[in-house]
Amino acid sequence: VSPRFQKELNPEQLAAVLHKSGPAIVIAGAGSGKTRMLTYRVAYLIENNTPASAIILVTFTKKAAQEMENRVQGLVGSEIKGLKAGTFHHLANITLRRYGKLLHFDPNFTIMDPGDQKHFMKYILGQRFDPEERKRFPKPTQVLDMHSKTINLGKPLSEISSVYYPAYLYQIVDITDTISIFTKQKKANNTMDFDDLLVFFLKFIRNEKVAAKYLDRIHHVLVDEYQDMNAIQADIVEHLGKHAKSITIVGDDAQAIYKFRGGDFNHMLNFPKVFENCQTYKLETNYRSTPEILKLANASIRKNQVGFKKELRTTRESGNLPMMIPCTNLYQEAQLICQQVLQHREEDIHLHEQAVLFRAHYHTMELEQELVRQKIPYVIRAGVRFFEQAHIKDLVAYLAVLVNPTDRIQWIRIFSMHEGVSDSGASKIITILSQQPQVLTNFVYCNLVQEMQGSRLRQAGLENLTQLQQFFKQLAFHPGTKQRLSEEELPNLPQMIEKVSQYLKPMFPARYPKNYEDRLRDLRELMNFGAKYNSITAFLADILTQYNLQGETILEGDQTLEESPLVLSTIHQAKGLEWKVVYIISLVDGRLPSARAIGDEAEIEEERRLFYVACTRAKDVLYLTYPEIVQRFDRDQISGPSRFLEEIEKEKVFEEVEVEEE
Fold first, then answer.
1. Which of 143, 500, 514, 551 satisfies CB 3.0 to 4.6 Å to 385 for a cystine?
2. Contacts of 464 (CB under 8 A, 6+ apart)
3. pLDDT (tens digit per residue) in 230-271
4. pLDDT at 21 exceeding the cut of 70
């Protein structure tokens, strides 16, 4: 081992990095340097003659994968080629595009995002049921959610329906048939949704004959954030791990807070049973928080009955006790937060080094009002994600049909955004066009008036679709011929985005009357973003499998500000981040823990883990605030502090501070 590794890693981290072979579980407490441990392990394997292409590193976000890859490159001192680093969906996407033909599908498939799925399911339901039957049937999003849960939780549809949608249990046969049609039509259109990526990837690696070449090349598997695995992800890891020389999973069961998304920390708790002779490593040295903050966090999480036992300790010097502050009501709580934020700014703790954390977005209503009133700039890590916004999806549709012209969903979106063309009109057009193999060529060169006879398409719709024909002709065909430009011959991505933006520009004022200028500005930002891609396929795969899924964009607020703004974040969105000063607000039963969890011990333990995650975001100062009166609908409700504060009160891990009345 190089002296550098011994110098830069603590003994706990070094032991995990040097793990020889076979299965290993690394229980990594909050702020204990798990990213460092993972990157050094990859570097160690490469320095000991493992080709980078024989290593899989699975992370929960694209950003995490890129950061780790950059760090590994810095450690190894040269470019690393072929490291398979990224999310499960990214890993599945690149593998299926390479080996798709072995599974008998076209590797140029398009990826459907949730909006596309909804459109498609709506279309299928419209075809299957009359309006009266539709009223009684689950909504498109509900059918999709049931289907997704069967895949991600690995449970039969009847069980999913009885737990989550009991009112529709009597329609289970029709729901099953609808999902079956949905699956077949996706295949016919050469499209996949996010779940399909995982399903087909698992199918591929399960078929050891077909996947032998791929599996033989994988020597070491590393998986981050294992406490958040769902059933299909754990299945994938299990199959990869069986073939690899070593499999190392890293996580913290005390930070398992994604049950609502299908995450099940039992996969982590059971890992040593699934893989025999599993080696356990613990990272318990926290580099983030003061001893006082850790003492409170440790005291809280000890109340949970289920989980690995661990005790965080710190290398940092002593600081102040966390402060619990009761406030009269939500308005006084909001004023207190603003007052403390400004006071800390006077002490040279910038706004962006402070964060207000909450259980649900609506808990910030009073606070947001007060921040605006006091002109304190803030940013919310919980808005609609950039790539999920309707106007971005409008533009993406045009790019998607250039790469995969059989993608019905994108065509319906394109046609129906033209005035005079309804959703059902758009469906009819695509049905007519799909009768010929070359959908794009067929559309551009067809006689619309003749083709649309009897389809009750309004004159405005015909005129607008004629313009669309001209646009695609100029964009995607050799002048004067019916020969399409190949992807390599198309203009570069920023130019393509610019051309589509210009075409969309006249539609935006009617389509988005409130904020069309902001949306057009977003399209310009997308051009800058697209400059780093050398193909439309890579761009689409990236934004649809990674950004969209993990939601790594946040509403950035006003870029003209002189200083970075105060951060407001749900606790879920704050995971993995840290600030000098943290305020956890609305600490009353019914808010944290949420009302839904009260009375269910497993749910309360999940909420306690959420409180633990919130507390361990703080480096120096931690405020715990709650309103003594919460306004509910038309009455005031008197509330005491959250059970999470009451149960650790005797341990003297916080001090109670009274608000000074003005």
1. 551
2. 418, 419, 420, 421
3. 999 999 999 999 889 999 999 999 999 998 888 999 999 999
4. yes
Q: Are 93 and 111 in contact (CB under 8 A)?
A: yes
Question: 418: number of CA atoms within 13 Å, CB side?
Answer: 24
Q: What whole-number distance in Å separates Cα of residue 498 and Cα of residue 494?
A: 6
Is the pTM higher than 0.85?
no
In this structure, what token pair is assigned to residue 358? Answer: 């909450």
Determine contact, residues 285/32, Cβ cutoff 8 Å.
yes
- What pLDDT is stored for residue 167 in this prediction? 83
- Distance in angstroms (rounded) separating the CA atoms of residues 31 and 365: 31
Residue 5 pLDDT greater than 50, yes or no: yes
191 contacts 407 by C-beta, under 8 angstroms: yes
Could you list the beta-strand ranges (E) of 122-211: 191-193
Cα separation, 234 vs 273, whole angstroms: 13
Buried b (16+ CB within 10 A) or exposed e, 459-477: eebbebbeebeebbbebbb
User: What residues contact 601, with CB distance under 8 A and at least 6 apart?
Assistant: 305
From 345-359, 438-452, 640-654, the region with the lowest mean pLDDT: 438-452
Between CA 609 and CA 592 the distance in angstroms is 11
**Token pair 């999940």 in the structure block, residue:** 606
Percent of the chain with pLDDT over 70: 93
* DSSP sequence for 445-490: HS-HHHHTTTS---HHHHHHHHHHHHHHHHHHB-TTSSPBPPTTTS
What six digits make up the tokens of 396?
Answer: 């993406």
Buried b (16+ CB within 10 A) or exposed e, 280-318: ebbbebbebbbbbbbbbbbbbbbebeebbebebebebee
pLDDT digits (tens, 9 = 90+) for 270-322: 999 999 999 999 999 999 999 999 999 999 999 999 999 989 999 899 999 99
Instruction: Give the fold, CATH level 3, of 3-100+197-287.
Output: Rossmann fold (3.40.50)
Question: Which residues make Cβ contacts (< 8 Å) with residue 283, sequence separation at least 6?
Answer: 12, 13, 16, 26, 27, 28, 29, 32, 33, 34, 37
**CA dist list (Å): 222 to 131, 252, 256:** 50, 15, 19
- Adjacent-strand bridge partners of 86: 58
Helices (H), ranges, 302-329: none
CB 229 within 8 A of CB 264: yes
3-state DSSP assignment of residue 264:
coil
Fold of 387-547: PCRA; domain 4 (1.10.486)
Region 292-385+555-656: CATH code: 3.40.50.300
For 503, left (φ over 0), alpha (ψ -120 to 50), or beta? alpha
- Amino acid of residue 270: N
∠ CA 101-107-110, rounded to 5°? 150
| Per-residue model confidence as pLDDT tens digits over 480-522 | 888 888 888 888 888 999 999 999 998 887 788 667 777 887 7
